[in-house]
Amino acid sequence: MNHSPKMLSSDLIHEARARISPFVHRTPVVTSRSFDEAAGRQVFFKCENLQRAGAFKMRGATNKIRSLSNEELRGGVVAFSSGNHAQAVALAARDAGTRAVIAMPTDAPRAKVAATRGYVAEVVFYDRQRDDRAAFAREIADREGLTMVPPYDDYLIMAGQGTCALELFEDVGDLDALVTPCGGGGLFAGASTAAKGTNPQVRCFAVEAETADDTRQSFVKGERVCIPPPPTVADGMRNQSPGALTFPVLQQNAEDVLLVSDVEIVEAMKFLLFRLKLLVEPTGAAAAAAVLFNKLPPDVERVGVIISGGNVDPSTLAQLISQEV
Amino acid sequence: MNHSPKMLSSDLIHEARARISPFVHRTPVVTSRSFDEAAGRQVFFKCENLQRAGAFKMRGATNKIRSLSNEELRGGVVAFSSGNHAQAVALAARDAGTRAVIAMPTDAPRAKVAATRGYVAEVVFYDRQRDDRAAFAREIADREGLTMVPPYDDYLIMAGQGTCALELFEDVGDLDALVTPCGGGGLFAGASTAAKGTNPQVRCFAVEAETADDTRQSFVKGERVCIPPPPTVADGMRNQSPGALTFPVLQQNAEDVLLVSDVEIVEAMKFLLFRLKLLVEPTGAAAAAAVLFNKLPPDVERVGVIISGGNVDPSTLAQLISQEV
User: Does this model's pTM top 0.90?
Assistant: First the structure.
């Protein structure tokens, strides 16, 4: 099995889909007339918050781990993440009967650590100030014979993430546009490639929080830009630059990178929660916010929106929904 | 069109489905391995919290209103409710281009009044202490030429509610058991009749809050019992007795009426919110609570659970999820 493809293609995404479908949910597509009225467009939400482990990350992690050689599988995997990627790698590894080591910062939220351990992963801690996390994880990988599962900069990861867009187009037919949240860019790279494979004319938009606009700046400048650690409620968008492998795909597929404010993100989150009854984390609501607050070109009518995840802890949720109660 | 059928049948539910399908969502069925592990069974959630107007009530209201004669439709409809039935009748009437008057108690929550008015319904108030609400609504109906849309004691209403179980069985195949929340009994009557029409052996269970056990008491005694106004977090279960028409159907179809505590309901609600990412109102989580807290007979393996609604206001939700944070 070829587990180090050298580019992302529609075929790679179709292969990913065949590989992962026994292990991931085919998530529902939800529509809402009240959202459509508020947004002035016809919107189809692909609900990856209802995915196993609560986010689309399960798709990429499963595709990567299920592509390993038997020898690699016997050795186990390692990932560094305090977010949804950690839980996805832990769960996908458990499914595959292999060992997972997750490197998290010492100040990671206890709920995330507990959730990751709940999937039988070993959690090791690094000091965010003192340690270079990539070097830290590579050292563990070398010492213990583990294979790294990167969060986005890997074509098998991107291909796995892209499978959600294949399902969306199958369920709803053609669309004018596809809108996804954008952190490191793995979801956008995979989903836009899948969408263009279905219809080369479909218009693809990535969405970032306006204070975490590393991809926007890079897109405008035409090369990868690194920004200081960005403050935003969307904790899945706190990366400082787009990926080396994801960014060229974004340059090729994105019509634009749209920005939304934290207030718009929280408003969209509340709309999705109280009107559509879906718990969506701030990052997961960013693409919906871009549609709700009219950031798309006026001639886009039928639009697919990826709701990327739903992992929020109770205290954070109580705080966010109480702000305007 | 015969709009006053004299009994509930599987055929009536199939007719209802054909009549209402352009106007209601075919809601998704969601599964969760973590719920299954916690419950020790294989559970299929029919997500009526994702229905239009946030609850299964949209099905019955639409079936009733779409069965009216042209003359009745010209006159408009009236309902008395401060809950999900109010919003469903308001929205179904708006869809059908007819007038809706909703009678609510003067102390109804402002959010519910606003939501109902949002669907262009006229809201009139009655005094819960002073007025007999049925007489009050009948007087309005007579005076203004409106047709009453009752909340549950009507075969067209029950047939509409039952369509959710038809869809569930179509999506997941055969089940050992079907579990639904039970307020006035319209949902249970319709859903159990639909289920038995698909497979006469399927075991049907209704679930009540233990402080609101009018149906449980009636089921045990073999006749309708009236209890004092029951205190429970499940506001859709605060009725004092089962319906005159729904109760005989329940007697025929129910294997048992199960009870869950308010604490169990809130725990189930939190599980559904933070693990399955679904906002479910307390009443809507009662059947899930019965499965999660092991109230079913041990030999039930594949079980369908109706999540009946998801209308919770932000302040109530913040309060409920903060209790154990």
Answer: yes
